[in-house]
Design goal:
One of its GO terms (cellular component) is plasma membrane. This protein is an alpha/beta fold and 402 residues long. Helix content is 69%, strand content 6%. A 5-stranded parallel β-sheet has the order 3-2-1-4-5.
């Protein structure tokens, strides 16, 4: 019976793999890869539940509880960093559960998945930090060649240099430092580990937030501004934000014959000849968007002001607060922009424009630093507690152990 069920699940999965792309191509929002992943997850969940029923146990309810907790918090409010932590807790509990199920069933499929996972983990352990450093140096060279040598474009290089110094000093510290001093040096790796966990949670929820698919019933699309070339020309990065908005505008128009207003948001910088939003409007006009469907917000200087001032314009244009809105920005900036929308009391989620792969590591580092600064007091307290703990351990080692 078990083999028959496994075959049935396998056949159902393969049928879905072939039919989902054909089904999604007929939709206005194809996004078939997301549905392929969802279909695999559903088939795997049914298979795991079947194995549990065969064993007459119901331990799958444990990871399911963590999954439902994440889903409840995420769909209640997508724009929260804690959602990344909740999803990663589900992954840890889920992997532990699957390991337990493997031991209890010795199932071939679970053995295959465990083997693949083990290979990936072994490679990470072997390459680990050294591989990361090599990648960061390579990425830094590419970014500097393509984007210039500004400080914002040097983040991967600075991180690579910092990690190199850390690795070299770590190698020699145990040989040249007394044990109490090594404990004090431990402040750095413990703090680095803490920020790695914070970054991983941020990266997780940033990736999950990319799957946001708003309905074609929006009243407004806010396009977040950025700097202009020579103070007047829309750069490629900003152009992709506008084109993402235009893509949604046309899709909603086809679906409902009622396109949303596109609200260009961005003021005039000190080195710019015109407001960013006016340059953005001209860009959209050249792409064939009617002027009557374009609004401009010309006073904002940062993303939070983008959200606040755009909200005021939308309320005035709509004649109330019961409007539906989304915003567009580059995918690496999407989640932090959502946080600013939340701070502005604007009920709006975003859709992200694609960014060249080489630019993403540097861009996500910049976003992460900005996220850290938004909650800097909390992080300073935690780093202070880590330092205090290691300092006390060093004192104990110096006066009571050495």
């Amino acid at each position: 019976m078990g083999n028959y069920f496994s075959i049935i699940i396998g056949v159902m999965y393969l049928i879905g793999v072939f039919l989902i792309p054909k089904w999604r191509r007929k939709k206005l929002k194809p996004n078939w890869k997301f549905y392929e992943l969802l279909w695999f997850s559903l088939c795997f969940i049914f298979y795991v539940i079947y194995l549990e029923v065969q064993l007459q146990t119901y331990y799958f309810l444990i990871p399911s509880t963590f999954l439902f907790l994440f889903l409840f918090c995420y769909f209640k409010e997508k724009r929260r960093l804690v959602n990344g932590l909740l999803f990663n807790l589900f992954l840890v509990v889920g992997m532990t559960y699957l390991g337990s199920l493997l031991v209890r069933t010795v199932n071939p499929l679970l053995i295959l998945l465990a083997g693949i996972t083990s290979i990936v983990l072994i490679l990470l352990l072997l390459i680990g930090l050294y591989g990361l450093v090599v990648f960061l140096y390579w990425n830094a060279i590419v970014v500097m060649k393509k984007e210039g040598h500004s400080l914002a474009n040097l983040l991967t290089l600075l991180l690579a240099i910092g990690l190199t110094v850390f690795l070299v000093f770590s190698y020699f510290s145990s040989r040249i430092l007394p044990s109490w001093a090594s404990l004090l040096f431990g402040i750095l790796p413990f703090s680095m580990f803490y920020f790695f966990v914070v970054f991983y949670n941020f990266l997780t929820i940033s990736i999950i937030y990319q799957f946001n698919q708003p309905n074609y019933e929006q009243d407004f699309i806010i396009v977040l501004g950025s700097g202009l070339i020579d103070g007047k020309t829309v750069p490629p990065l900003l152009g992709k934000r506008i084109e993402k908005a235009i893509q949604f505008y046309k899709a909603q128009d086809r679906a409902t014959l009622n396109p949303p207003k596109i609200l260009m948001s961005g003021g005039k910088g000190d080195d710019e000849h015109i407001a960013e939003s006016l340059a953005m409007k001209n860009y959209a006009l050249e792409k064939g968007i009617p002027e009557k469907d374009i609004l401009v917000e010309t006073n904002s200087k940062n993303t939070l002001e983008n959200m606040k001032f755009s909200k005021e314009i939308m309320e005035a244009s709509f004649g109330g607060t019961n409007f539906k809105a989304i915003f567009t920005t580059n995918n690496f900036h999407l989640f932090r922009a959502g946080l600013f929308a939340k701070m502005a009391h604007l009920k709006a989620d975003g859709i992200g424009a694609k960014t060249a792969f080489y630019f993403l590591p540097n861009a996500f580092l910049r976003e992460f630093i900005a996220i850290i600064m938004m909650r800097k007091r909390r992080h300073l307290i935690i780093c202070g507690l880590i330092s205090l703990m290691m300092f006390l351990l060093a004192l104990v080692d110096l006066f009571f152990v050495s």
